[in-house]
Predict the 3D structure of the following.
Amino acid sequence: MIDIKFLRENPDVVKQNIKNKFQDSKLPLVDEVIELDARSRAIKQEADDLRAKRNTLSKQIGALMAQGKKEEAEEVKKQVAAQASRLKELESLQPEVDSKVKEIMMVIPNIIDPSVPIGKDDSENVEIEKFGDPVVPDFEIPYHSEIMESLNGLDLDSARRVAGNGFYYLMGDIARLHSAVISYARDFMIDRGFTYCIPPYMIRSDVVDGVMSFEEMDAMMYKIEGEDLYLIGTSEHSMIGKFKGQTLKKENLPYTMTSYSPCFRKEKGAHGIEERGVYRIHQFEKQEMIVVCEPEDSYKWYDKMWSYTVELFRSMDIPVRTLECCSGDLADLKAKSVDVEAWSPRQKKYFEVGSCSNLTDAQSRRLGIKIKGEEKNYYAHTLNNTVVAPPRMLIALVENNYNEDGSVTIPEVLRKYMGGKEKIEIKRKK
C-alpha cells in the first residue's frame, strides 16, 4: 500500500505506474480515492470545528448561568444540541468513508523501482547473469519423477489415492536427500548471520491482507473452514506478520531471519507438461529468508539476499541464472524482484527455483510496522527471498547429478547430512 499523501500529491505518477503494470482497469481508482480522501479530510475538519465550538459554547453557558441569564443560556444550549446532532452524523460517516479509502488503497499497486523493465508478463523478464556452465550430457536424462521412482524415492499413485493430484510420497534416500537440502540450507543461512525460526503454519486474515494482494490470496491460500485462519503459502507471510503493529528500535535493525515451514498452495491455472511430477504441487517444504530494515538499506539487502541463493545452488554444482522481473510480472506489493532459475539438462533450459523481492514499505504500511525515529516514526522496509524450496529444487539436483547408470551423485556439501553417502543407486532386484 502506498502513502495516500504521495498519491494525493502525485496522481499522474501513480497512474503511470498502473499503466506500466498493464492494469489500466485500476486507473479510475486514483481519482475516486482522491475524491474520497478529500471528503474524509473535510468531514474530519468539520467535526473538529464543531468540537471546538462546543467547548466555546459550553463555557458561554456556564458564564451566562453565573450571571443569571437563564434565557440566553437556554438559547446557547439549543445551538449546542443542534451541533451535537451534526457531530454524531459526522462521527458515524467518517469510518465509512475511511474504510472505502483503505479498500481502494489496498488495490492500487506499489510504486515499482525505476530500474524495473516494462513488460506485460514473465515472457518479457530480462536475463541478468549466468552462474556456472550449463551442461548437457551425451546420454538421455529421464523425467525427474521417473528418476526418483527408479530410485524407489517417489510414489505419486498412492498420494493421488490418499489426497488427490498435487501431492506426493517421498521415500528412502530421496526423502533423506530432501531433508538434507533443508538442513544444509538452514545451516547455510545461519552461517551468514540469519536467525533461524520455525513460524506458525497458519495466519489470520488481517495478516494475509497485510502481506499480499487480494489476487494472490485468491490464487494461493487455503482457508480453514469456520475459523479466521489460513494455511501459509510461504513462511514469509507469518515471518513478516511477526512484526505486525510493532514500533522497532533503530539499534535492533536489521532483523535478518531464515525460516523453515511446510507450504500449502492452491496453484490455480493450467499446468504444462513440464509441470507434472513434483514441479507444481499443493504441499511442499521451504527454507525462506526475510529482512526488515531501514529504508535506505533495503536495496543493499536485496542484492545480498538473491546472491545467497545463487551461492547455495552453486555450492551444489547446479548452474543458475538470474532474471529481472518485468513490471507486468510483479505482484502488486513488489517494487523490484529477481527470479533465480536452475539449469535443466533434460529440458536444455532454465526453470524457476526461487524469487527475491523488495516490497519497500508496502507490507509495513498494511501491517503497521514502524521504526522509532528521533523526531517521528516511519515505516520499515521488508524483503523476502527463497533460500531453497524442495521438492522443486530436487528436480534440478537429480537432473544435474544424474549418471548414465541411473544413479544420482550426492553433492559433497550434502553428504554429511546423509551419513557420508556419495551416491543414490538403483537397488537391483535379486
